Amino acid sequence: xxxxxxxxxxxxxxxxxxxxxxxxxxxxxxxxxxxxxxxxxxxxxxxxxxxxxxxxxxxxxxxxxxxxxxxxxxxxxxxxxxxxxxxxxxxxxxxxxxxxxxxxxxxxxxxxxxxxxxxxxxxxxxxxxx
Length: 130
Fold this sequence. Notes:
Layout: H1 3-27, H2 31-36, E1 39-40, E2 43-44, H3 47-69, H4 72-92, H5 98-120
Helix pairs in contact: 1-3, 1-5, 3-4, 4-5
């Protein structure tokens, strides 16, 4: 499988884990009552917080496409930057609830593997199967 396909697919894995961690949070006892107050786990939900979170999630969404269309050298840089930013979002913006830790673990593993593939990606391996 070409490296760019592996990386793009791993971004899909990261995104699905992000989505389902949030979906299952809605089912956590007391979460809906807490969110209606505008304060979740001590964090006040503001329009600015939501736009910042949207930007972080959009990075993962865009990387699915960009990983397939950018040149190898640009792809490497963009993926490494996106991995660092997304890792900070997953770890820094996370929860200590068991389901979140479970999903975040897979996100971190996938992100580290994206970083590894991007770092080790040889120019001649851009379109050749491994």
